[in-house]
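Appendix C: a fully annotated inverse folding record. The material below is reproduced so that readers can follow the format used throughout the book. The structure is listed first as tokens, followed by the designed sequence.
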């Protein structure tokens, strides 16, 4: 294996290891606890809901069962 391909392989493995898994937490989040433009999943009375804060406004999308 060449030195360059070995470095590329190691870089790919490192980047894959850093990916965060989305976790489903309970309850509706507050606008203060969300980072701008980073979606979160929450289990609510409506079902599984995706929330995202954009320009200080909280948006939500109720997910359908697939």
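Designed amino acids, in order:
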């Amino acid at each position: 294996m060449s030195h360059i391909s070995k470095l590329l392989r190691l870089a790919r493995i490192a980047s894959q290891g850093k990916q965060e898994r989305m976790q489903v937490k309970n309850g509706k989040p507050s606008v203060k606890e969300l980072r701008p433009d980073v979606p979160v999943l929450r289990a609510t009375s409506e079902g599984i809901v995706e929330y995202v804060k954009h320009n200080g406004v909280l948006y939500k999308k109720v997910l359908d069962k697939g």
